[in-house]
């Protein structure tokens, strides 16, 4: 089997690798795509993909959401795609023009971090490359030049959730270069105007060692914080995850908490218990460009949990019933690559890895 001739089942781009592998007893497709990056998809996932394509639910917009999501997760290890993830990614809201442009500019700045550095992309080729992929007309012979250009262009296209060659032209050439002048006229580098704009995305506290931990303050979670979260932050980079003074914390958001978040290097938001305060604190940090790590105890993440609920019987007497209640993490944060933990030790180990992979230098 000639690997080069196999295209990515999600985006139709050329692949470095596209083989059938296995994890335990499960058969999976292992793909390393020019656009999406590395991922594995299990058999129910592949069948779902086929079904979505045949029933015309899988258009270029859906493709761009899934492909971009996989590409953004590349630093976190191998991305696993299954039926459930496909369905939820398709229903994600589409990014607007400005969000797409921001993502592309940030990606370029990360790839070419020194001002004046030449952007090593042949942007003139972009239109043709995207058109050929969309029309399924990837040169069949080993076209080295096509593949070399595609290799540098397609990750940028994935990050920008680009739907087709026309949109790329509009956002990159039209908006970022001609209108905003963030890219030089000859496409050679990011302009000083572009760098000035990128400053607005800079981390507000590059030198802080403080970590804000947003949790549900129960005895169990306080114990987890002191025994596992705090040591994990220390181990991963000498960060201080001090619990906030409990008298400041009655579940409400107040100035003391806002101040703590403002001064943090990053935030760990644990959604066990599904408390409103945690949503607020995570969202507030996110709005300030402070990275947020999302976690939740596995048995409580989007699952039915047994809860005792007080109610009244037909005669009006109070009684307690044991009911299955669905503990659903709110949609907006559902896809943020949650750390799902079994116990404190598991959370500790996963946190150390995740903290080390955070983009904390900018
Ligand atoms: Zn792909």
Question: Can I get a quick summary?
Answer:
The chain has 362 residues and is an alpha/beta fold. It contains 12 helices and 10 strands.
Structure description:
41% of the residues lie in helices and 18% in strands. By secondary structure, it is α/β, with parallel strands linked by helices. The model has no long low-confidence stretch (mean pLDDT 87). The strands form three sheets. The protein has a four-stranded mixed beta sheet. A hairpin with a 3-residue loop joins strand 2 and strand 3. It has three domains: 3-90, no CATH class; 97-199, no CATH class; 211-356, Rossmann fold. It is built from twelve helices and ten strands. The two termini are 44 Å apart. The structure holds zinc ion. The site of zinc ion has 8 residues, from loops.
Q: Summarize the biggest pleated sheet.
A: 4 strands, mixed
CATH architecture of the largest domain, please? 3-Layer(aba) Sandwich
Structural class: alpha/beta
Number of domains: 3
Order of helices and strands: EEEHHEHHHHHHEHHEHEEEEH
CATH fold-level name of the largest domain: Rossmann fold
Net shape = globular
Helix content: 40-55%
Total strands: the figure is: 10
Hetero ligands? zinc ion
Give a quick set of tags describing it:
362 residues, globular
Give the topology, please:
Layout: E1 15-23, E2 26-33, E3 37-42, H1 43-54, H2 60-72, E4 79-81, H3 83-90, H4 97-111, H5 126-134, H6 144-159, H7 165-179, H8 192-199, E5 211-214, H9 219-237, H10 255-262, E6 266-270, H11 276-287, E7 292-297, E8 303-312, E9 318-327, E10 339-341, H12 344-356
Parallel strand pairs: 3-4, 5-6, 6-7, 7-10
Antiparallel strand pairs: 1-2, 2-3, 8-9
Helix pairs in contact: 1-3, 2-6, 4-7, 5-7, 9-12
Bound molecules: zinc ion.
């Amino acid at each position: 089997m000639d690997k080069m001739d196999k295209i990515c089942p999600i985006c139709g781009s050329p692949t470095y690798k596209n083989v059938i592998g296995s994890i335990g007893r499960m058969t999976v497709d292992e793909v390393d795509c020019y656009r999406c990056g590395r991922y594995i998809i299990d058999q129910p996932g592949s069948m779902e993909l086929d079904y979505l394509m045949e029933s015309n639910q899988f258009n270029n917009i859906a493709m761009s959401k899934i492909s971009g999501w996989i590409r953004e997760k590349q630093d976190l290890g191998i991305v696993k795609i299954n039926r459930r993830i496909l369905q939820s990614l398709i229903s994600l809201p589409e990014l607007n023009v400005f969000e797409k442009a921001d993502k592309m500019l940030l990606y370029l700045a990360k790839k070419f971090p020194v001002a004046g550095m030449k952007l090593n992309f042949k942007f003139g080729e972009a239109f043709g490359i995207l058109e050929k992929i969309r029309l399924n007309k990837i040169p069949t012979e080993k076209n080295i030049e096509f593949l070399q250009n595609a290799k540098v262009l397609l990750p940028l296209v994935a990050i920008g959730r680009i739907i087709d060659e026309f949109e790329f032209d509009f956002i990159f050439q039209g908006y970022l270069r001609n209108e905003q002048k963030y890219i030089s006229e000859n496409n050679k580098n990011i302009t000083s105007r572009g760098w000035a704009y990128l400053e607005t995305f800079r981390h507000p506290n590059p030198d802080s060692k403080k970590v804000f931990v947003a949790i549900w303050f129960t005895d169990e979670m306080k114990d987890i914080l002191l025994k596992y979260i705090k040591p994990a932050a220390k181990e991963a980079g000498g960060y201080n995850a001090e619990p906030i003074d409990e008298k400041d914390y009655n579940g409400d958001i107040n100035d003391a908490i806002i101040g703590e978040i403002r001064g943090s290097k990053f935030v760990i938001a644990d959604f066990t218990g599904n408390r409103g305060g945690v949503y607020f604190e995570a969202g507030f940090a996110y709005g300030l460009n402070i990275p947020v790590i999302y976690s939740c105890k596995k048995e409580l993440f989007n699952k039915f949990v047994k809860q005792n609920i007080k109610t009244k019987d037909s005669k009006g007497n109070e009684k307690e019933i044991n009911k299955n209640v669905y503990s659903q993490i709110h949609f907006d944060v559902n896809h943020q690559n949650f750390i799902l933990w079994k116990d404190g030790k598991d959370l500790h180990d996963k946190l150390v890895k995740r903290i080390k992979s955070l983009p904390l230098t900018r």
